[in-house]
Amino acid sequence: MKLITVSLLAAAGILSAGVAQADEALAKAKNCMSCHNVDKKVVGPAYKEVAKKYAGQAGADKKLAETVIKGGKGNWGAVPMPPNKVTPEEADKLVKWILSQK
Prior knowledge:
single chain; mainly alpha; Cytochrome Bc1 Complex, Chain D, domain 2
């Protein structure tokens, strides 16, 4: 029984690591990483800072997905974020990944 539990936990870890890498791959493919980084500010804020700022806020995921699609300004300083060519589904996936970067 213990071996089964350990095996299931290991499999879950491998699957979740694959999802995290896939979402990071999407961020790279959509050029998000040219202005952002997971743990340090580049042009825009670090994703860990974004996750920290919006942690626990109701509707943050929808608000951020809209910002990813339409762009935004004034939330993180003077440099505006341009609109991005992503589908709503891709924006949702990116935002879920960003908000998980605690």
